[in-house]
């Protein structure tokens, strides 16, 4: 490992890797204005929980990404790197680093650290901020139970679009999307953004992000 664990480059690798694994923008993972410095809390939790396996995972990501930000990667590049990190590309992989990648995903979504050895009932809440700012709430276009910065009565209106929560622009549907989906099917009735989102992040064998986080 060429960089120390606390170096700016290692933190940037962690933020970019987290963005790739979760599908959220790097600016959402680590906003420029972050008074609670949540990224440092999450980094420290992963470093403490996985030890050398976390270092190896960051090294692997840095090598695969080659310094390119996730926002500049093509969908194929993001999928290829994600499948490599998660051991879904059919190539020999380090069980500890793939388990660490899954635990990092859980950490970002739920605010919990799940031991990479699979110990049942040993998961722990990293911090109150990691919990209330977990990406799972953003994915639901909502907020943590018992915590909200929204104005009273917000529930009377539809939630903002998912892109407001992920920080990513809505993917453009394929030019021939209408021809690919037969009229009258359930998929054809979906809004373009929802139809596109339904396929984002699917891994090998059609695994969804929820499947990957759950270890299925």
Question: Can you describe what's shown?
Answer:
- With 216 residues, the protein is an all-alpha fold.
- It has helices at 8-22, 26-29, 38-50, 52-65, 75-85, 95-110, 128-132, 135-139, 162-166, 177-180, 192-197, 209-213; strands at residues 112-113, 124-125.
- A two-stranded antiparallel ribbon has the order 1-2.
- The longest helix is centred in the middle third of the chain and has 16 residues, at 95-110.
- The model is unreliable at 181-216 (pLDDT under 50).
Features:
two-stranded antiparallel sheet; single chain; 12 helices; mainly alpha; 48% helix; disordered C terminus; 216 residues
Total beta-strand segments: 2
Annotation field: number of helices? 12
Q: What proportion of the residues is helical, as a percent range?
A: 40-55%
Major sheet attributes = 2 strands, antiparallel
The average pLDDT is 77
Give me the secondary-structure category: mainly alpha
- Strand line-up in the sheet with most strands: 1-2
- Approximate strand percentage: under 5%
Short description:
The chain is an all-alpha fold. It has helices at 8-22, 26-29, 38-50, 52-65, 75-85, 95-110, 128-132, 135-139, 162-166, 177-180, 192-197, 209-213, and strands at residues 112-113, 124-125.
């Amino acid at each position: 490992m060429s960089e120390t664990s606390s170096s700016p480059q290692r933190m940037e690798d962690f933020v970019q890797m987290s963005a790739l694994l979760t599908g959220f923008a790097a600016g959402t993972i680590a906003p420029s204005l972050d008074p609670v410095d949540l990224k440092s809390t999450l980094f420290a939790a992963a470093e403490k929980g996985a030890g050398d396996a976390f270092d190896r995972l960051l090294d692997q990501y840095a090598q695969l990404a080659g310094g390119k930000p996730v926002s500049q990667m093509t969908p194929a590049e993001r999928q290829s790197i994600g499948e490599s990190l998660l051991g879904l590309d059919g190539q020999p992989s380090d069980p500890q680093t793939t388990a660490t990648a899954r635990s990092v995903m859980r950490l970002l979504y739920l605010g919990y650290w799940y031991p990479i050895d699979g110990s049942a009932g040993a998961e722990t809440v990293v911090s109150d901020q990691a919990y209330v700012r977990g990406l799972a709430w953003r994915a639901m276009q909502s907020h943590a139970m018992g915590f909200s910065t929204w104005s009273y009565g917000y529930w009377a209106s539809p939630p903002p679009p998912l892109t407001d929560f992920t920080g990513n622009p809505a993917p453009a549907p394929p030019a021939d999307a209408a021809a690919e989906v037969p009229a009258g099917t359930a998929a054809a009735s979906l809004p373009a953004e929802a139809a596109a989102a339904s396929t984002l992040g699917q891994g090998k064998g059609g695994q969804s992000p929820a499947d990957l986080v759950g270890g299925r």
